[in-house]
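worker-03 picked up job from queue 'complexes'. Input manifest follows; two sequence lines, order preserved.
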Amino acid sequence: MLLIYWLAAVVLAYWAYCLYWGIISGRMAVTANDFFLADRRLPAWVFVLAATGSALGGWVFLGHPAIIFRDGFAFAQLSLCAITIPLTGVLFLKRQWLLGRRFGFVTAGEMFDQYFRTDLMRLLIAVVALAFAIPFVGMELTASGDIIQYMTDGKIDRDAAMWVLTAVVFLYVCFGGLRAVAYVGTLQTLLLGVGIVAIGMIAYMQLGGIAAFSTAMAKLGSTAIGSWGTNAQGYNAYFEIPGVAQFTAGIDRTAPIGGMWTAIMMLSYSCALMGLQAAPAFTTLTFGARDMKGFGPQQVWVSAAAVGGILLLFSVAQGMGANFLGGSSTITERGLAVARVLPAITGSDTSTLVAAYIKSISSTAPWFAAVLFICALAAVQVMAAVNISTAGTIFARDFYGRIFNPQADDRLLKLYARIGIALTVIIALIVASYAPSAQAVLGALALGFGAQLLVPLTAVCWLPWITRQGAVLGLIVGLVAVILTEHFGEAVTLFFGLRLPWGRWPATIHSALWGVFVNFAVCLIVSALTQNSAETEHRMQFHAFLAEHTSASARQRIWRPVAWAISLVWIFFAIGPGAVIGNDLFGPPNGGIAHWRLGIPSLWAWQLVWWLLGVLVIWFLAYRMGLSTPPPRVVEFYVPGANQGRASPIYAREQWRMWFWALVIAIVAVIALRWIFA
Amino acid sequence: MATVRTVERRLAVTTLWGLIGSFALSFILSGFGNDGLIWGSFGFALVVAGLIAHVIINQLYRTSFTNGEVVLGFLVFGVALLIFLVTWIFNPSFGMMNGLIGLAGFAAIVAYFVAYVVIKFGLRGAFSMFHQLGRR
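worker-03 finished. Artifact:
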């Protein structure tokens, strides 16, 4: 009961903080751009923290250790997402920011629309953004409800908690827009990082230190205990990557031998995670930055160095450590557990792992458990808030302002943004409460969808010869490929009586990479066939501007082959096929601690080595190659009114009819989803 | 109306104390609750670290503690000290170790305060400041 009082006190303090900054930001949001982009004046340190939190968020806090607990060190390799996610930023952030500043873009859809000169692109980006945001937000909010239900032994209902906790997020986002999201995001991100460290420390203490942890792992390594057994070499699947690839029809059709986290799966999953920084929400956050001073520090020091280290040292301790603390009933029964402080966690309950850690200290230090709960809540809400805010911006700018009322003033745009925020939150909550299975299926698409924007972003930032037709067709085909390599595609095709010959993630390749592969292939072929000099000339305006402000110095041109080489080598060995070398390079997993050269499992040591090298790679690209440093020349700012875009062909008298049909389509879609997934 | 710069400084300060304050309080309570000298000391060390970070923020924004921050700081310190002393005197289960933790922690904060005023105003300036305050 004491825990509930502490929870209530800490949650109230947290809400006061969120609402305070929501109200302050709301007072500062005079114009629509204040609301959408914080008047493009987010200081560097706020951008650094908010961007890191919104890219990593709740899945790193709650999901990452839970899957390490289930699948072992093979999944821990994905801690290197702390390098791959900012790699996307290194490639695109500076150029997007420059374009946004010069041409006055507010949303990603506007950027693509102006660049490719097609409304279809804007519409597709808006659809991708919403398809990304709604299930993602729903999953994040569900997690917050789940934790509080678990922490209070069911005294507080999951759905009730979720709705109440979300109400506060809705309020501060609705009051203050992106500024509130970023301002509140600073504390949320710090709580996220410190929370992971604190829970990791709890795990280390309960395990008796790293030496006792290693000893326990050595004992486990010599057995075949675990959900995936052993591989052909006799290595326990917890401690090895199960090969470069396994050509299965899908992970739900044929169980991969030794686990699903093959090297190619990690590479493709990393590609999916790169979609987090390619998503429209991140583009909007980038446009809101006052300058580029925060880009390099965010990518190199905060994301790659700090978060990478935290994940590899503390999330791994939480995940693998839980096996020896009572979390795995099999390991406990075989006498390999070092303590029994966690309840046995079965396959479907792994998401409660972090909550179980927090609860394990609730009897001795309920105040600490309450603070750690706030860390989890903050981690979940930082990512949700930025997606909710962006969904509102897209609703106002890309739908209302573009299609229905291009003359809308600031007051109307802010109003419709708030309506968009409310709709996003309500839809996400309804789906989370009443159709959780549909949410899980749709949520699986989100990462894959986000990754598809890597191709048009590459076009806008780097490759002027990609044509409108190529980008649009590539994106459509890429999205279809993602759908067809996920459960959603299986369900839809089965609904129409067609059984696909493959299942989810065929050949242990994530749907995101299937989509990107098809997307790029179609984009290149169609672009080659549809070159048009007038269109190329238009696109070259953007690239000429980028070239003017991002041209490499003579020294950087010399280093360019080196940059390519070290990047590819890092990808190959850290998250690609070369990662399998790490299985036993520093000692065989079943050899015992005497044979582990660094005193820890070989794969863990391999991951730590490539994390350190990854920080160097990102530093080299961001600073040495100038991919994230401010340009030497002053950027001409966008002048409002000078670039209002093209008049929408469908604006005006038909708008009420369109609203009606949009509503009908939305209702039919909801009914169909309910019917298909019921 | 507050300028953007003022608001950003306030954000930095509230973010700092939102993080440090919550964990410092947790560690201090853990120290008192379990006779844990290390945890309690770590909590007080966090408070001192927060105060130092606050001064760094002030330097970055070329300003000093606001009147509100000074009042709030003294108020929180005074109330915390009062609670500590009352608990020590009237609660028989509040052991010697807890007393040590509290005394060491509050002493560290006072030491920080003295060091701050001496560094900021100089030895003579620090005394003069109190002298002037007394004459008001």
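worker-03 released lock.
Residues 642-653 of chain A have pLDDT under 50 and may be disordered.
Residues 647-678 of chain A form one domain.
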